[in-house]
Amino acid sequence: MKTLNGSCVCGEVEFRVEDQFAYAGYCHCSLCRKASGAAGTAIGGIANTHFTVTKGKHRINYYKRSKETVSAFCSICGSTLFGEKPLLGMVHIRYGALDHTPSLLPQAHMHVSSKADWYEISDSLPQFSEFPVI
Ligand SMILES: [Zn+2]
Ligand SMILES: [Zn+2]
User: For domain 3-114, which architecture applies?
Assistant: First the structure.
């Protein structure tokens, strides 16, 4: 099984994930925008059984940002790494935190209804106003 490594900016936190993402896309919701400071984030969803923190577990801070999502970030450098979806048993990995290219590339744009006005989507991937039903 191919695995992918991920890490934060300072290198204190590392994780490993199997290259078996169930879905992937660009999220334009306001929470992802604020958390990343960017137009949006590329995320991939994977069952939490396929995901392990391999270094610096004690460096991770968690923030319950909504009923469905607990965001995980490095307490040293602030990198946002992944979001836990306990109700679904999934983890949303920030593709930007990966050190390798996953097999499943982003397939769509999500939460386009809350996209920043100053950001224009210029590719031809499908767009969903909220999170698509999967
Ligand atoms: Zn860090
Ligand atoms: Zn989002």
Answer: Beta Complex (2.170)
For 8-33, the pLDDT digits (tens) are: 999 999 999 999 999 999 999 999 99
Could you say which ligand is closest to the alpha carbon of residue 80? 1
Q: Say whether 80 sits in a helix, a strand or coil.
A: strand
Domain spans, the chain: 3-114
Rounded distance from Cα 27 to ligand 2 centre (Å): 4
For the stretch 41-84, pLDDT in tens is 999 999 999 999 999 999 999 999 999 999 999 999 999 999 99
Report angle CA 73, 21, 88 to the nearest 5 degrees.
70
pTM for this prediction? 0.93
